[in-house]
Amino acid sequence: MTVRSFTSSSKERNGADRWRRTLICGLLGTVIVLGAWEAFWRAWGFAPVLEDDLGIWAVIRRGVDRAGGPAIVLLGASRMQLDVDPRILRAETGRKAAMLAIDGSSPLPVLADLAGRSSFDGLIICSLLPQWLADGGEDRGRSARWVRKYHRQKWSFWIETRLSLFLQGSFVFRYRGLLPDRLWRNFLEGEMPRPPYAPMRSDRYRPADYRLTDIAQLRAARLDRQREIVAAAKPLGEAEFAARLARIEDMVQGIRNRGGSVIFVRLPSCGETLELEEAAWPRGKYWDRFAATTSARTLHFADHPELSSFDCPDGSHLDHRDASSFTRALVEVLGLGQDKP
Amino acid sequence: MLFNSLIFLLFLAIVLALHHLPLPWKAKKLNLCLASYVFYAAWNPPFVILLWISTLIDWLAGKRIAAARSTGARKGFLALSLTVNLALLGFFKYGGFLLDNFTALLELAGIHFRPAAPGIVLPVGISFYTFQSMSYSLDIYRGKLKPWPSFLDFALFVTFFPQLVAGPIVRAAEFLPQCVRERRATAEQFGWGLIMIILGLFGKVILADALAAPVADAVFAAPAGAGFVDAWIGTLAFSAQIFFDFAGYSTCAIGAALSLGFILPENFRFPYAALGFSEFWRRWHISLSSFLRDYLYFGMGGSRKGALRTTVNAAVTMLLGGLWHGAAWHFVIWGGIHGVLLAVERAVKSFLSSRVDVSVPGVRPALMLLTYFFICLTWVFFRAEDTGAAFTLLNAMAGGQDGALLPASAVWRISVITVLLLGGHWYLRDRDFKATLALMPWWLRSAVVAVLLLALTLVPGDDRAFIYFQF
For the segment B311-331, what is each residue's pLDDT rounded down to a tens digit? Predict the structure, then answer.
C-alpha cells in the first residue's frame, strides 16, 4: 500500500517512531486537557468530592471490628448522614463515631450484620424512619447489597478502594456531577453545573449547605419523591409487623449480649413531609408500638423541644449549621456527654 | 483484577518495571509467573490451587505421553489429562446445572428429590485455562509438539496473566518458543501494546458498558414489556455490547502481552462483516473456534466422512461450544442454532454460488447484513435470562407484542452505534487495523489516543465485569 505524502513524515521512517510518538503525544494531550478541565472547574468553586459507594463504606465498616475502633456506630439513611456530625459527637462524648448510614435504604440489614457478624460492643445509634419499620422490601435495598458484598471482598478490593479514594479526594474531574451526560443535561437546560450542596467528608458525614442549591426546587422534588415512596408503600400486616419487631429485638439482644447497646432515634422531618409520613405510617400504629416492645432505648424527635425546633430546609434534612447544634442537643438528650472523660 | 481498574494499572506498571530490570531471563519469567498468580488470586486466592493442578497434571501427562512405548499407555496419559481438566470444569462449572437437571428428571419420574443447594463458586477463567492446558497434552499426543523441557515456561504458558481469565486461548506451540530467549518489547511493540490497551478499555468501558449495556439490560430484564422497536434495539445493543466487551478484553490482553514482548494470536477480525456463518466463526473468538475445530471437529472426522457425518460433527461441535459458554440450556440452544445455520449454509452454498454473482455491487453488503440479522437472532438466546424469555423477545421482534420500554434517545444511540459498528467492520474486513491507523497523520493519531484516554478518565463507568469472565 502506498503511503501518501500528506499522511507520512520523513521523520516516521519506522514503527518505533510512529507508535512511541503517538503514545507520548496522546498522553501529553490528555494531561494538558485534563489539567485545564480540572483548573476550570476549581475556578467555578468545585472541590474534590468523595463518592458515597461501597468502597468507602466498607473501609469504615472494617474499622468497626478493629481493636481501638469506634465506640459509637451511626446507622440509618441520609438523615443520619446529614443531621449528625461524627466529629461533633466525638468532641462532645470523647468517643470515636463511625458513620455506617446508607442513603436511601433501611439500616436493619446493617444492624443485623453488626449483631451477627461483628465483634462490635459499643453504642449503636440507629435512625429508624417509619417506612423502614413498617414497610416490606428491606432486604432488597442498597444496604442489604452492600452488606452482602462487604463480606465477599478480597484483598484486591481494598487496594482498589484506597486508590479510588485517593483519586476522588485529589481531583475534581472524578466528581459524577461533571460526567458528560450530566453536563449535556445542564447544557440543554441552559445552566452551569453547581457544586454539590451536601458533599461527603471522608468520615461519610455530609454537611449540607442549602445556599448552594435552589431550595424551593429541592423541597418540591423531595416532596414528590416522598409522595412516590408513600404511593408505592406496602405496609406490613399485623403478623408481619410483629415478626419484624421480633427480628429487631433479636438484633438488639445480639448486640447487648456482647456488652453493647442500641438506641433507636426518629430524626426530624418538617412540614408536608412530616404530614405525609404521619398519614402513611401513623406514629401511634408503628413507632409507639415499636418503642413499647423493644428493650432498646428509643427517642422520637417530637418528644423533645430541643430536637424538634430545627427547620428542615428540604423537608427532611438539616443544614450543616443546624446539624452541629442538633448533634450537641442529641448528645445532651441521650445523656452521652456524661460519659466524657 | 479487572483490566479497567486502578489496581490493574498499578499492577501492570510494577510488572513492566520489573520486566525491564537488568535481571536474568529466568528471573524475569519467574516474576511474570508469580505476577500471574497474584493476578489470579485477586479474585479468589484458594482457586490458584486449581491452576496448579491443571499445570502439574498436563506437564506430567505430556512427559509421560511422549515417553510411553505403547499406544495404550499414550492414550491412558492423555485420558488422565483430559479427565482431570474436564472434571475440574465439570464440577465447578456444570455441577449445579447437572444437579438441577437430575432433579428435574427425577421429578418427571415422580420422585421428589430436594438436594441442598451446592453453592459451587465458579473459578474465573476455568474454561479458558483448562482448554489451554489440555491443548498441550493433545498436541504432544498427536505428535505436533515435543514435551517442553522447562516447567517454568510451561507454568507461565498456562497462567500468563494477560490471557489467563478470558483468552485468547493460546496454543503451546505458539507461546512456548517465545520463552526460549529473553522477550522485551521493542519501542514499536511497547507503544502499540499500550495503545491497544487504551483501545480495548475504551471499547469495554465506554462503548460496551456506558453506551450499549444499559439499553440491553433494560430490554432483556423485561422482555414481556418490549415492543417491536425495543426488542430489536435491545438485541442490537447486546450485539454491540458483547463485541466491544469481548473484543475489548482481547485487545487489552494482546496489548498487555505485547508490551512485555509476547505475541498472542488475534481473536477477533471484524466478525460482523462476515459473509456467512462459517466465516463468522473464522472471525469471532477465533482462538476458541479454532480450538473446537482442531480438537473436536477434526477429532470426530471433520468433513472427511460424508455430508451427513460432517453435519453431525459440526452440530455436536457447536452444541458443545454453546455449552462451554454457560451451564444453561439457552446457551446450548444458542450453539445448536449456530450448528443449524452452518448446516443450512453448507447445503445452500453450492446451490447459491452458481446462481448469485457476489461481484455484483450490493450483493456482498446484503449477504453481510443477512448474516448479521441471523447472528442477532442467536444473541437473543445467548443473553436472555432463560429460554422462555428468549422466545418472548423473539415474539416481540416479530411484532407479536406491544410495548414501549426505551426512550427515543436510547433508540437513536444504539442505531448510530450499530451503523458505525457495521460500517467500521465492513471497511476494515480485509484491512489490517494497525496499518490503517498508521496511515493517519501523527497528530490525528495522537488526538484519537488523547480523546480515548480522556473518555476513560472522565467516564468512570459501572462496575461491570467482562462478559466472558463468567465463562
Answer: 888 888 888 888 888 888 888
Contact B205, B459 (CB under 8 A): yes
Residue B442 with chain A: CB contacts under 8 Å: 9, 12, 18, 21-22, 25
Return mean pLDDT, chain B: 90
| Contact status, residue B125 vs residue B158, Cβ threshold 8 Å | no
* Among B433, B449, B452, B469, the residue to mutate for chain A (most A Cβ within 10 A): B449
Cα B230 to Cα B210: distance, rounded to the nearest angstrom: 18
Note whether A162 contacts B: Cβ–Cβ < 8 A. no
Give the nearest chain A residue to B448 (CA atoms).
A26
B438 and A15: CB-CB below 8 Å? yes
User: Sign of the CA dihedral B310, B312, B315, B319?
Assistant: negative
3-class secondary structure, B110: coil
**At A262, phi and psi to the nearest 5?**
-130, 135
Rounded-to-integer distance, Cα B340 and Cα A89, Å: 69
- Write down the H helix ranges in B327-407: 329-353, 363-383, 387-397
- Over its C-alpha atoms, chain A yields an Rg (Å, rounded) of 24
**Which residue's C-alpha cell is 481498574?**
B5
Distance in Å, alpha carbon of B259 to nearest chain A alpha carbon: 12
| pLDDT at res. A13 | 47
> Residue A62: left (phi > 0), alpha (psi -120 to 50), or beta?
alpha
Residue A156 to residue B1, Cβ atoms within 8 A: yes
Entry pTM: 0.88
pLDDT digits (tens, 9 = 90+) for B152-191: 999 999 999 999 988 899 999 999 999 999 988 998 899 9
Exposure b/e, B288-327, CB count within 10 A at least 16 = b: bbbbbbbbbbeebebeeeeeeebbbbbbbbbbebbbbbbb
pLDDT in tens, B217-264: 999 999 999 999 999 999 999 999 999 999 999 999 999 999 999 999
Question: Is the model more confident about B313 or about A330?
Answer: A330
Q: Which residue has the higher pLDDT, B470 or A144?
A: A144
Q: Do A23 and B194 count as a contact with CB atoms less than 8 A apart? A: yes
Closest CA to A143 of A102, A114, A115: A102
The pLDDT tens digits of the residues spanning B332-357 come to 889 999 999 998 998 888 777 777 77
Chain-chain contact of B445 with A22 (C-beta, under 8 angstroms): yes
Domain ranges of chain B: 15-183, 189-275+358-470
**Residues of A in Cβ contact (< 8 Å) with B452:** 26
Active site residues of B: 325
Whether B187 sits inside 8 A of A16 (CB atoms) is yes
